[in-house]
Design brief:
Spore Coat Polysaccharide Biosynthesis Protein SpsA, Chain A, 2 domains, globular
């Protein structure tokens, strides 16, 4: 027998699907999973103490498809539900799906091909779908061609990298890695920050692998602009803790400072960032930092933050950052338009 002609058996993908009061959307979500061109998958549907019959609907689907397993938990939040799914997973590869979203038909195949043999994480694009509108593809806010840029983007809160649901993870490097329960915002990004730091290589797939259905009752939509910084502060503190645990706190001191300032900027504009940084963010930005371990380029910034002078610098830097981001966004749109011609 010519072993060169024997195709390597495809790896099993475990899809972790937490759901809470999702009886109206679960069937469509599972239908998108059943339609995948990649056939070697199982799904762990974790009911998070739903009160609307979600668990019964999931078990009815599982009775028709042996690839589905249902776990019933008391209500503990999405992170606890995802952690239970991680504990129950059987596949060598892992991905996540939310019960009110959907997968394009070739999502798992695209991610598996991007992962290949050398990467530990494959990341696709997200299409945002608003009611009555066509899906809109979201692209990363900056280039992600190096590990340093990827980790910086996660610290800034990049909308494509943050999500768990547009990615495929090799299970072995993530052994023991779990989500932090109790966070309302940013639990995905903290998990990914640790996962990306541990991965040998992160592959970027250029196509959409996840359809995010925008809901008016999501945590991000309920959050008022006036409370933007306070809502994100537990996530920012989690970023500092995660970086410290990874031995990367000093290496990424600069982007975390700017992430604090960015959350204040989004709350109330440039003046809010300038006026609020010292009183609201300064101590958190300095926490867990060993100044002797800072890389030389970060030492002047550390001195400015410690002396309370960072807001003066940000007053000049922020407009330049905004201009740079707008130019980059225009460049991405121009490339997409040229690609369609």
């Amino acid at each position: 027998m010519n072993t060169a002609l024997i195709r390597k058996e495809a790896a099993l993908i475990t899809v972790i699907l937490p759901c809470y009061n999702a009886a109206d959307t679960l069937a469509a979500c599972l239908a998108s999973l059943a339609a995948q061109s990649y056939p070697h998958w199982e799904a762990v549907v974790v009911d998070d103490g739903s009160a609307d019959g979600t668990a019964d609907a999931a078990e009815a689907c599982a009775a028709r498809d042996a690839r589905l397993r249902v776990l019933r938990l008391p209500h503990g939040g999405v992170s606890a539900a995802r952690n239970a799914g991680l504990d129950a997973a059987r596949g060598d590869l892992l991905t996540f799906l939310d019960a009110d979203d959907a997968l394009p038909p070739h999502a798992l195949q695209t991610l598996a091909e991007a992962l290949g043999d050398d990467a530990d994480i494959a990341c696709g694009l997200i299409a945002r779908k608003r009611p009555g509108q066509a899906p809109q593809a979201l692209t990363p806010l900056c280039r992600l061609d190096t590990r340093q840029r990827q980790l910086r983007a996660l610290i800034y809160g990049d909308r494509v990298l943050n999500s768990l649901c547009n990615k495929l993870y090799r299970r072995a490097p993530l052994a023991g890695l779990r989500l932090r329960p109790g966070l309302a915002i940013g639990e995905d990004a903290l998990f990914n920050l640790a996962a990306f730091a541990k991965a040998r290589h992160v592959a970027m797939a250029p196509s959409v692998t996840y359809i995010y259905n925008v809901r008016g009752d999501s945590a991000m939509h309920r959050m008022a602009a006036a409370g933007h910084y306070a809502a994100h502060r537990p996530w920012l503190d989690g970023v500092a803790d995660t970086l410290a645990a990874l031995g990367l706190r000093e290496a990424y001191f600069r982007p975390l400072c700017y992430s604090h300032a960015l959350r204040l900027y989004k709350q109330g504009g440039l003046l809010c960032a300038v006026r609020g940084f010292n009183s609201l963010a300064r101590q958190a930005a300095l926490a867990k930092v060993d100044p002797c371990a800072l890389p030389p380029p970060a030492r002047p910034l550390y001195a400015l933050v410690r002396a309370g002078l960072f807001p003066v610098v940000y007053l000049f830097i922020c407009p330049l950052q905004r201009l740079s981001e707008r130019c980059a966004a225009l460049g991405r749109r121009a490339r997409r338009l040229v690609g369609r011609l």
